[in-house]
Design a protein that fits this description.
- The protein has one domain (6-196).
- Helix content is 26%, strand content 21%.
- The chain contains five helices and six strands; from the N terminus they run E-H-E-H-E-H-H-E-E-E-H.
- The chain has a three-stranded antiparallel β-sheet.
Amino acid sequence: MSQFSSSNYEVQKTSGVCAATGETLEPGVGCYSALVDIPAEEREANDELGMKRLDVSQSAWEDGFRPPHLFSFWKPTVPEANAKKKMFVDDSVLLNLLRRLEDATEPQRLAFRFVVALILMRKKLLRYDATERVDDPAPGSDGDGQVQEWWRFTPKLDVSKGHFGKWNEEEQISVLDPRLDESQIEQVTTQLGEILEAEL
């Protein structure tokens, strides 16, 4: 992961402003928070994760407003100023992020996805089953590329039941190990916590 750096993770906390109307979102009021895809040309120019967060008032959302390039969303309550962080997203949002990033190829997104998998495993919502090593030949080579390590997981059938739920033995999720060191994992976890306004 030589292309990884902490500057790739400049993601936003809650803006406190509705992306649809420009109105201030009042603390204690429900809203919708959305992750949206940044177009590839802008992503390359700014060297960003490829996603940004937008907040939308509940009324604007219910009136049908959806930001362009919507990737995922959840429904938090606007936090009070200087309030201690709480988990404003449920575990299904994290599992949805993991699944939606299945086709990711950019180093930043691969790191993001791997850390989400580690968080879900720590929560006992993913079961580690095995590591599969796969040759990743460089373009035009004869199989002399770097070996990839894919972690195989089984998810819970119903994450709302927490670690007491049954495993979904009919689904397996494969996650590429991007070989992050501890400081890189911590950086990504911190930024993920900030974009979700959550303690992870």
